[in-house]
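note to self: dont lose this again. the chain is below, predicted strucutre after it. 433 aa total, dont forget to put it in the shared folder this time
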Amino acid sequence: MTTRLRVGIPPEIWDHIFEIATHVPYTLVPEIFEKSTLIGDDYNELCRPALKTAFATKRSLVLVCKQWWHLAIRYLYRAILIDNPRKILSICSTLQNYANGMGAVPGAKPLGWWAERLDVVIRGADADEEPLVDVIMCLPNLAVVSLDIGERRSKDESILHHILNALRHAASSLRVLDWSMESSHPATLLIERRLVAELSRLCILRSRYMPWTDGFIPQNVLSSLTKFAVKRMLIMEGGIPGGSGLEGRQISLREVVIDMTYDDFGSWSIFMGRYGIFLTSVHLTHCDNYQNRFSFYLTMIKQSCPNIRRLTLSVINFSCLTHMLSLPPIEYLGLSTSGVYHYWMGTEALFSALATLRDTLPTLRVVQFTNPDNVARPRTCYRMAVRALETDLAQCTFRIGDHDGNLLLEMLEAVGEPLYCLKYLFQFADPFD
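---
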């Protein structure tokens, strides 16, 4: 039986319904900027399953009837997730057919015109990514791109060059670029630099390797870039005189992400000596894996970032916090852990550390658990958390909130112990709610 639109309901209303039904919060511009601190591996693990679920919903909508197809088709590829090499050829064929007018309504925009986000996650050296170049060429209005294609064979380096060059097709619209490629080849870094130089509206850049090996970010990039995350900070072409040449220029950079996995402290010291004065937010990852490095990074931040207001720490286990909370005079502290096993550990040490901050960091105003999974604790930890919040931390001057900004104690009491874990067990539509 053919399904028909209800008579009297204008297409604009149905369009709004489809928008709500397929919406994944904090994945498109401008909402994504509200979660800029999270952008990285943890953020991708949260949002990509939700994008996959949303695509299934979109596909169901366009198959209901011809009228719904016309109304919902623009949402189908608004966010494209390619997590299997076999999908590349299928998506490429579909996009090219619509670009050539096949399957589209005469005069309508091609399917790729509506795409705003592209995620590509492909593992394995045998994957063929050449059709990905053609996919990107069909997407002129991309605003968010996240590419993670794993380790490369040397003969495949040219494919990365073609992908980077293809992204120039969306240079005028690209706002977020997550280039998580395992390649530090000089030619690849050169093409990446050239691409970024053309992205006049780029706000967030995440790269596995420092694109500018001399440590200088070009002025035209700094005028729009607000957040910079890099896994390997390798400055190999000499030092940087602190701050010289930047006075009076428009510098938008306010946030950096420092990965402590690698021993790049020397390069980070050079970088922060030049740009630290502009920063208001720093995110440190893998802190407890390398506790001996943590004090050096904190000292560096204190010395080079006089305007810092926000600090976010990503750890494996909250129990390490008792050894690393000699913090700069910040107003906001974000905390997160990773790994299911470690969610259940360190609760007592966590609240003990927060009690210490109450007495040693008078500037602190907000402590927030940035990862929603970290809030989902078993009932034994629930009791411990409520007890600590009601006693040791009852008179503290800073608020302790969940990932959504709600007071942690009020949220715990509202949900209650028996249903507490269930509330977070079934969150598929909104990974951050």
